[in-house]
Amino acid sequence: MRWAGLIAFLLLPFSESDRPNRYTQSRAERDWLLYMAAGEAAFADGRLDVAEKEFATAHDHFDRPGTSFRLAEVRLARGKYVQAEQLCRNLWVTLARKYGAESPEVARCLDLQARACAALGIDREAAQLTHLAWEMRTKKLPRDHFDIAQSIHTRHAMWRPYEALPLLAIGMQGRTVASDAEDSLKIQEKALPPNDVRLAPCLLAAARAITWDDTTELPLAEKRLLRAIELVKKARGERNYTLVDYWTELARIYGAQRKVELAAVTQQKAIGLLHELYGKRHPRLAKPLAIMSMIQGSLGKVGEAERLVEEASRSHFSGLTDIEICAAFDRLADHTRKVEYLLEMARRKGPTITGYLTRKHDELLKARQNVDSHTAWLRHPNLELLTALRRSQNKPDPLPIILGGPEQEESIFPNLPILDAALVNKDAQKNPIGYQEGGDYRSGRQERWRFNVRDAKGNPMPVKPREDPEGGGLTGYNTLKVGESWTTILDMRRFIDLTPGDYTVTVEYHDRQEIASDLHTAGLMLCRSEPFKLHVQPRVIDVTKEAREAVKVAVASLEEKDRVRILAGTYSKADHEFITPASPAGKILALGWRAVPELLGELENAKLKPHQRAWVLALLFSITSWHDPRDESEVIGRYESRSRGWVVSGGRNGKTYVMGAGSGGKLVTHTDAIDEKKQKVFAEKWRAFRDYIVVRDK
After folding, report:
1. pLDDT digits 0-9 by tens, 653-675
2. 3-class SS at 540?
3. What are the Cα distances from residue 313, in Å, to 15, 274, 319, 320, 325?
4. pLDDT tens-digit profile of 370-408?
5. Closest of 447, 515, 511 to residue 480, by C-alpha
6. Which strands form 401-403's sheet, in the order they lie side by side?
7. Which of 477, 401, 443 is closest to 648 using CA atoms?
8. Of 188, 214, 183, the residue nearest 200 (C-alpha)
9. Please, what is the end-to-end C-alpha distance for the chain in angstroms?
């Protein structure tokens, strides 16, 4: 088996002086050659543990640059990012002395070190190293040299943005110029034979350069990736581990084209191959699992998406020891990356991590003492670090959410509780905690709060998108001493809709980012309440024959000249100038919930005109606040809408003040003409509504 890798070894990316002369080999040199050949064969087959063992043996006995480089590569592939980065750090000094500070050999080493830094989340260093390698290569090599292409591949592999997940920032933030990858591909297609497997990375880099909104380029990216996959299969076999990268990118391209089912099947191929080769937990699984999480989320499988994010995080860090995680954390600059590490530390616990976090928090408190509260919050935030420390110590979170009210809440559909919520400093060692007051409320709710609701089977319930795109709001930065609190009021209906049933509810809070509309909050360091039980009862509606007849007559009286008007709130005298009581719509709204059963029946009336159906959809929403037709284009045509005002309040230590308010008001919207097919599809949403109410005819 060792001799099987001999040819691959002789193609090592270093100069001839690293290879032993076959006519003057000593016994030691032959042994080194055998170790390296065996390592190459194992690396090519994806047997990374065997490859590392062979390369490590060669490295321990023979001081050669090619050995160190290959060992660093295999350790990077195994997720031992700190060890790989350290090897590269030592190697490039040796290479600079041997071949020159700007030699191609040094550039390759810097490229590899950049990949290790990016995987660790040390973005700034990774960017500097990649740029330096690029400059070295462009100075020394012709433009059609494959090493130039390799620099482009590295840049795109590192900086491809997957913003949808907090976790897999993992070496993928920022963006490079897409034309680089396109130019590289064109050059290499001229320089290499059409079926050369070295074209595959060029095709992959070109695909990575295409963003989700480059709709015209997505089919071309798909075609190129399929070609790359065939090249790899022919050259390296059907089960080669590098296929994972191509399948993962292809799944992303399918997802961008809304071929979601196909994306799921493709990504599962990648995950299945990795499971077959390396088991259920391996660093290479991190990115495929993260992409699969996005795919499952788009399919509405929120629980599975949440699970996959957590699994991706554990896989990513699985190649690092506790000491290595702590060492890498010291070099991180980005706050999001730091939180990823803190979550892993809190999950692992242990004396090494607990001792390290204790020291870091002590340093942070000292730094906070010398600056104002705003600077302390901005530059020296301690909430996440202190939370991770307490979790690693198996102690309660320092800033829990305390809710007012009973442990069991009751409500009548579609109403939900309005809760008193307080962030209370209950730190076990009485440390002060920096936090943000107010802000992020201009949508009509506090966007940094979220209701995590599970049904009786444990399935997560979908949250509402924000009603108003305007964000922001007045904010301040302060400190809570132990026992102090910041209180607010949360209207649950603004965050989520629930049908009748039994639920478990946990309130969540993030001090820095908006989470109210997030599909899930896996991968975030949150403040949480204790869960409470919520029972939502069906609504009982008493209906008379006269009320039913009045609704039928009113719907039949709606004419094309009557522009649809939507009232987002309970109908009252204040709305009479918007929808007059004498109008057909006014008569229906005056009946309130008593009109709902007959309006549901009208949706099944085959003779109902599109304009009348639009009115029925609008009236049902106005009465029930369910299934907002404004969210769908071409369902109600041109309409006028009036919404209710809102108030957001909060304050320290029980003192409440108004942080922000909105007056609501009227909005005239110009939309496309009604598409009756889309309108009827939307109307089908109301069919299940009968299960949420109990109708009693009087």
Report:
1. 888 888 888 777 667 776 668 99
2. strand
3. 39, 16, 12, 12, 13
4. 888 888 888 889 999 999 999 999 999 999 999 987 777
5. 511
6. 401-403, 418-424, 485-491, 646-652, 657-662
7. 443
8. 188
9. 87
Cα gap 529→410, rounded to integer Å: 18
Band the pLDDT of 244: cuts 50, 70, 90: very high
Mapping DSSP onto H, E and C, the string for 120-155 reads HCCHHHHHHHHHHHHHHHHHHCCCCCHHHHHHHHHH
User: Residue 25: pLDDT band by 50, 70, 90 thresholds?
Assistant: low
Whether residue 161 has pLDDT greater than 90:
no
- Residue type present at position 299: L
User: CA 209 → CA 143, 156, 221, 284, distances in Å?
Assistant: 19, 7, 9, 21
| Torsion-angle region of 449 (φ positive above 0: left; ψ -120 to 50: alpha; else: beta) | beta
What length is written for the chain? Answer: 698
CB 249 within 8 A of CB 290: no
Please write the tens of the pLDDT for every residue from 551-578.
999 999 998 888 899 998 889 998 999 9
Question: Which residues are within 8 A (CB) of 126 and not within 5 positions of it... i.e. 6 or more apart?
Answer: 114, 115, 117, 118, 158, 171
Q: How far is CA 143 from CA 131, 177, 188, 200, in A?
A: 16, 17, 10, 18
Handedness of CA 241, 242, 244, 250 (dihedral sign): negative
Rounded-to-integer distance, Cα 671 and Cα 575, Å: 24
C-alpha span between 529 and 403 (Å, rounded): 7
To the nearest 10 degrees (0 to 180), the angle between helices 104-120 and 65-77 is 20
Q: Which of 627, 612, 640, 625 is nearest to 681 (CA)?
A: 627
Q: Is the pLDDT of residue 31 over 60?
A: yes
Check: CB of residue 528 under 8 Å from CB of residue 400: yes
- CB under 8 Å to 301, separation ≥6 — which residues? none
Q: State the average pLDDT over residues 323-338.
A: 92
Which residue matches tokens 């039994």? 502
The predicted structure's pLDDT at residue 670: 65
Read off the pLDDT of each residue in 164-181 and give the average, rounded to a whole number: 43
| Short-list 297, 437, 324, 387, CA closest to 80 | 324
Q: What does residue 472 show for φ and ψ, rounded to 5 degrees? A: 80, -155
* Percent helix / strand / coil, the chain, rounded to 5: 55, 15, 35
Q: Strand 693-697 vs strand 539-543: parallel, antiparallel, or unpaired? A: parallel
pLDDT in tens, 214-225: 778 899 999 999
